[in-house]
Amino acid sequence: DARVKKWQQQEQAGVLTGGLGAGFEAPRIQIRETDLESPSSPFAQRAPSRGFSFARRKLSVNRSATRRALAQSEANRSGQAVQIIVEEADVTLASTTKPPASLAHRGSHIDLSFVAGDSMPRTPGDPKEPSRGTTTASNHSAQRVETFYPVPNWKPFSMRWPYLLHLIVLSFALAGSVEAAYQRSNRHGSLVRFVTPHEIAALDYFSIKYLPTLVAVIYGVLWQSSEFEVKRLEAYHQLSKEDGARAAETLAVDYTTSFSLWHPYYAMRRRHYAVCVVSVATMLAVSAVPTLISFSIMLSPDRATREADPMAVKCIFMHGSWARLTEAVLIVIALLGCALFYLLETRRSGLLADVKGIAGLAAMANVSHILMDFKATDVATHDDIHARIKNHRYILRNSALAPMDDTRRSVSAAAGDKKKYQSTRSNPLPLMFRPLGFVPYITGVGLFTIFFPVCELTSWIEIFPGVLTALAVCIKLGWGALDTTTRLMEPFFILYNRHAPPKTLTLDYTALPFGWAAGQALVDGHWLVAAVGLGTVMTELLTVQVSSLATVEGRAFILAATSRNTEQDGIDAGEETEHTYWLSLVSALCILVYLCVVAVLVYAKRARIPFVPRQPNTIASVLAFIHQSKMLYDFVGTEKYSNAAMLQHLTDINREYGLGWFEGRDGRIHCGVDQEELSATYRHGVDFARSNKPWQESFEEWL
Prior knowledge:
With 703 residues, the chain is of the alpha+beta class. It has helices at 2-12, 33-37, 63-78, 93-96, 161-188, 202-209, 211-239, 263-269, 273-296, 303-308, 320-345, 357-364, 382-389, 411-417, 435-456, 467-496, 503-506, 516-524, 527-549, 555-562, 578-607, 619-626, 643-653, 688-691, 699-702, and strands spanning 29-32, 82-89, 135-137, 141-148, 192-194, 245-246, 297-300, 314-318, 393-397, 400-403, 657-663, 669-675, 680-681. The chain has a four-stranded mixed β-sheet with strand order 1-2-4-3. The relative contact order is 0.11. Residues 32-51, 115-141 are annotated as: Disordered.
């Protein structure tokens, strides 16, 4: 009808419709500067928050700085935008009237009027008309208004001070435990002495054989939980800063599927110090600590001596050099934990609630005109999108994303905005879903499945006993990458299959902690994600099993099994008994076989055909998927919803969703995520827009 055509014309002209881009609501709290700074004012005497934080308001004799600090504190306390009426004496109208299109924000000179969408038609008294930074003159004074938006501080539990303090204390406690074990070993000459493993008490056997590696593995998992949350939410903290942040440092950053070894370097370059600190600490906790502990616990005498005298006294002891190196690494991790504690407790996250799935970003992007920055990027690659927006600044205010630089662009940027990106035939899937990443990994796991029992049943185990543990850690890290990729891509694979339920838009397995994702996926009926999540748990057990067998040679048990002599006292395979040895070996091999089978299933079910035009691993990539979706009309006014409230909202609307080609709000064909019915299912390398209704595009766009 006429209204739809009018909206389509507005969308084609770069103006959002249907309540999208309506801007921030006018602040309901107005305070005069004199009331704000008065010693008797409740704003100046506000009781401190009960939250534990090192954040301090910097004292300053500067009037403007004091006003900003008090106003921002009141906005944070009330959770609402606050307008401060500033009176300036002896100012004439000609010298104080500010341009009507500017909005003073926190006393800065940044123009935020674009957040309200100036090009949208408005009527007088519109409740969403933003307050302008205006100045009215009188004979002796003038007034201007400054608006302060709350900066919320929601954080997941693994980023809060109790959890971080627990990691710090645990790191120092583990270092002390290693030192205590070394001192005992050095004082008594060993941790335990025995002739045959049957002489070792069950508790002592478990404490020496399994407990150290098990504790090290759990310790690494605890650090991984914090690492993932810090990386996932770092962009939102950067965007919540007073001056916002560049897209190259936030919207276009991928800390999910990129190679984690380079994360500290790139994080330091972007000044993401929390990411840098937690990445280094986690790499040491996950990789170095289990391996060093495996090297620290040794068996004496050597194999040749034990073969010459099977009934000789044997001892398990702590190697001094390896033990001290383990302690040093744990202390370094503890100090990094202290640095992380300080960084996270002296800043606000900028989030009111967790941002989960496509729905979380859709809710944050509907207030401003940020979606227009992604025009014509339906099938654009990451490099194309990054080149286009990398120098644009964006800000997170009142739970909404907005551009800082309005519609004013440089000549080169304006030319780039008109570019029509074409579908590429290169594989857009993450590395672990491509042959380049999958084939080397599955080959490595297969070779280790062969190499491990060969080492156990030959004398090779004596050469490098700690190498097997290091290889098991490498398998764990590789599987972690596969697990992250599978969890990231699952909602988009469901959408690719069309007619997905509303829950798919709020589905985000990457936000779930270790182990929980597998159980949740099983409840949701996503068996492949559950199988991969179970594999992640098994890789932790694999590290423990391999470490327990790293100093054991199984030839003695093979000979005993094939010999008629059933007397086991002469069996010499280190500190393992026959039953524990075969249980550990068989369980480790079963885990390796399980990993191989599940990895092949993942590749067969998810990686054979690319089902997305690009990886949804950045905020910018997801926004490009939805920038012209009609479903965004359902997200107007939902920017402050929690994940549960959002799910209930979408369930009440009761629509189905899909990933493919659809007619957007501008009346043209687009590729992305939208409500059903779509025009066509996505097929990689096929540009449905160029083969259907080509007359809708200009001649330049067609070329």
